[in-house]
Amino acid sequence: MTSFQTNHEGALIDRLTMAMDEVDGCLLNPAAFSHTSLALADTLRSMTIPVVEVHMTNLYARERERQESVTGSAATGVIMGFGPASYELGLHALAAMVGGAGGQGNSRSQGKRR
Description:
single chain, 3 strands, 11% strand
């Protein structure tokens, strides 16, 4: 497992692009980028591995400008509103997608290391 944190949109996009050759899936909290970053959304659409977007808060219960996630529509799935447990739930969903926890696997990610 690898983790990466940045406050820079370009660095995040670069790391996601590299991740496709290194891991079977990605758990992502794009924070405020989820509401504004078309570049990040385009990157997620090009991903060859599943991406689960997580948010600790329920976006629909937030301010109007924070209720839409342009990146969420590009992710494989979205988990939100469960506080820190959103990360754990997202990891369980991701594991099921890549073949762990009894999941069916993801043919796009076969042969990559985790």
